[in-house]
């Protein structure tokens, strides 16, 4: 009986991966982060007497994951457009400016840069 061969395809810069992989049950939610705890902490910091329902927290978590995925995908496209192998902060900032409205993008980039600077300096 002939063995079935696994077809290969080329990824970026000649890396190879198999087309079909057996998925384990533990990897079904891989990549989806849960930000409910952080959303609750920020809410309690801003308005201590208010809370959020589980459905609202779930919606906020979905929204954050969706925005994160969109920014990452757009930054990836910019990286490929520039023919670079490394994702730079400039790619992420340009992706934010392309996806978000002007004023919101300006605040997001400013606060994000400040947070990264504080993290690096500590």
TrEMBL record:
It holds the Pfam family Histone. GO terms for cellular component: nucleosome; nucleus. Residues 18-97 form the Core Histone H2A/H2B/H3 domain. PANTHER family: HISTONE H2B (PTHR23428). GO terms for molecular function: DNA binding; protein heterodimerization activity; structural constituent of chromatin. Belongs to the histone H2B family. It comes from Sciurus vulgaris. This is Core Histone H2A/H2B/H3 domain-containing protein. InterPro entries: H2A/H2B/H3, Histone-fold, Histone_H2B.
């Amino acid at each position: 009986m002939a063995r079935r061969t696994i077809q290969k395809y080329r990824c970026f810069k000649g890396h190879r991966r198999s087309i079909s992989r057996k998925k384990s049950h533990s990897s079904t939610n891989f990549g989806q982060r849960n930000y409910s705890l952080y959303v609750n902490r920020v809410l309690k910091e801003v308005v201590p007497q208010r809370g959020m329902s589980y459905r609202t927290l779930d919606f906020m978590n979905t929204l954050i994951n969706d925005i994160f995925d969109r920014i990452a995908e757009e930054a990836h496209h910019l990286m490929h457009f520039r023919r670079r192998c490394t994702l730079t902060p400039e790619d992420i900032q340009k992706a934010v400016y392309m996806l978000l409205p002007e004023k919101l993008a300006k605040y997001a980039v400013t606060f994000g840069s400040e947070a990264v600077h504080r993290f690096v300096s500590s």
